[in-house]
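*** Fold description ***
***
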Amino acid sequence: MPTKRKRRLRKKLYLEEFAIFGFEFTCQSTVSRDEDDSFLDVFLEFTDSLHLICAVGFSPDTFSGFLCSEFRYGSPTNEDRVTVKAWLEAQAGITNVHIGELVDANYGV
């Protein structure tokens, strides 16, 4: 049986109507080590224009991360997911783009 919580507590815990969602992305990367920083700068400018913040990482052949809204109780939309996928697919050196579903950014559900 779900616990009935007061609005104030739901807000503090980012539950129910205050839940924040985000999505993961993963893609293959042939971007060289020398180009990593400049590619990342361009990617961050792009996500900034969508009002998204991200945690990203490069491994030798993979570029991946998690994106969520820069607004306190905001969440990305499915349109944002499509836009990010299209942008990544258009970049030289990026292939096999996978965009995850929207999930709760705090609780992973």
Q: What stands out?
A: The helical segments are 7-12, 36-49, 78-89. The first strand starts at residue 21 and ends at 29. The two ends are 18 Å apart (CA to CA).
